[in-house]
Amino acid sequence: MAIAAVPTEVIVNFKDRENTATKTRFYLPVPGVLNVNAQAIYTKARTMALAVAACSDCQMTGFAVLYQDRDNAAAGAGEAERKGNFMFAVNGGTNYTTQVPGFLDSLLDANKRTIAVAGPDVAPEVQAFIDALLDGPPSFNNGATNASGLSLVRAVDGRKTHVRSLVERRGRSG
Amino acid sequence: MAITPRRAMSTTFGFRDQENTETNMLAHMTNPLFAGIAFAGFVEYLTFAKVDLANVVAQLSECDLSYIGIRMRETNDAQTPFGTGEAEKKGVLLFLDESGAPSFRMAIPGIKESQLAANGRDIDTAATEIAALIAEFATGTAAQPITPNGFHIETVQSAYKQHRVSHTGRARRTG
């Protein structure tokens, strides 16, 4: 896998007096080997976001720092439409679902429709994914959440679905 | 200005399939800055998401992993997050890169009148706030701003006000 870091993108969001939302962006260097410069970059992003806000009559509503890695030479394989759906129970919230595109056939149950997420039939790759997501970085044991920041507790369901791509959805009209 | 870290950071994994279809998978994790974890831990979070989590996700898919994006946000959750300006009034800064090419353009929404030159059209690059912003583009050893293609930003070529119509302004009435 030849995936490599690309410049860090910083997006600064504003709202004006009519509640029109708008944004501007700038770029900072890659965070370096093992992300050693991530702190310096984040601090700089914050400083610059405030410097931009000082030039504007609009209200800065926030900023986002996007650390990115990309492999533009990836050849591509499999079918993106074949999704592996994983549903997790959330501590104090509704269930959280994430989808793995091009899910491997070999990791499905014998019925080729469901994915074992608990018990003796769980594939090692699936177990490794669930553990990594729930546990997070080893030093913190403080891992996955839903979008609102509520912790995921355990995997409760796994199944395959076929989600059609935009190309497939397009109807012929001629 | 009360901007605070969001509770969750998002990690996007991009995949490319045999027909070059690009698709994404999204996972959220605790934002270490919200959780009060020091920056050393912050670095560990990033490395975990980019390496460990990416590897286990890639093992589940027959598609090729082509993108990893980790987004950390801070927001102002005050009840009245609106300004006095107009988003359409942009303050445009056009920067030259190290080769002398104009390769980065920043458009600041709702540029303050106080940052404009006497003619009302150009930006006064000596005005306090603009000068401070331009100075930020020239500092930061490991974090000095660059162009989207990774070139160093050298100088401001031009700075001016521009009025760009918003999406709302473009809309036509049909009734």
Describe the structure.
- The complex is a heterodimer of chains A (174) and B (175).
- Chain A has 174 residues and is an alpha+beta fold.
- Chain A has two domains: 4-70, no CATH class; 82-167, no CATH class.
- Chain A has helices at residues 38-54, 124-135, 166-169; strands at residues 4-15, 21-28, 59-70, 82-90, 93-100, 144-145, 152-162.
- A three-stranded antiparallel β-sheet of chain A has the order 2-1-3, with helices on one face. In chain A, strands 5-4-7 form a three-stranded antiparallel β-sheet, with no helix packed on it.
- In chain A, a hairpin with a 5-residue loop joins strand 1 (4-15) and strand 2.
- The longest helix of chain A is centred in the N-terminal third of the chain and has 17 residues, at 38-54.
- Chain B is of the alpha+beta class and 175 residues long.
- Chain B folds into two domains: 3-76, no CATH class; 89-169, no CATH class.
- Chain B is 19% helix and 35% strand.
- Chain B contains three helices and seven strands.
- Chain B has helices at residues 39-58, 128-136, 167-170; strands at residues 3-5, 8-16, 22-30, 64-76, 89-97, 102-108, 153-163.
- In chain B, the strands form two sheets. In chain B, strands 1-4-2-3 form a four-stranded antiparallel β-sheet, with helices on one face.
- In chain B, strand 2 and strand 3 (22-30) form a beta hairpin.
- Chains A and B meet through strand 1, strand 2, helix 1, strand 3 and strand 5 of A and strand 2, strand 3, helix 1, strand 4 and strand 6 of B.
